[in-house]
Amino acid sequence: MSKQKDVSKQKDSSSVKPAVAPSRKPDTRPNISTADDVNVDEDNAIESPKESLTATKPAKPGKPGR
To answer: Where is the composition biased (Basic and acidic residues) (predicted)?
Structure first.
């Protein structure tokens, strides 16, 4: 019977652990969010300037290759 109580205690410990993990995750999440945001922004920003540059100076392939 003592073992059963141990299992219950372990479950409680598991419940407490997840509560601490979320606190730590937010720190890592902002980092990932920033990278994701930058990735999406870069893709969108690069697509816009790239098209504009290509349409504005298509005869100057030296600039984009820079």
So the answer is: 1-14
pLDDT mean by block of 10 residues, the chain; 66 residues: 54 53 53 53 54 57 57
**CA dist., res. 31 & res. 50, Å (int):** 27
For residues 1 and 62, what is the distance between their CA atoms, to the nearest angstrom? 79
Handedness of CA 42, 47, 52, 57 (dihedral sign): positive
Task: Characterize 30-40 residue by residue with b for buried, 16 or more Cβ atoms within 10 angstroms of its Cβ, and e for exposed.
Answer: eeeeeeeeeee
pLDDT reported for residue 28:
55
DSSP calls for 17-36:
HHHHHHHHHHHHHHHHHHHH
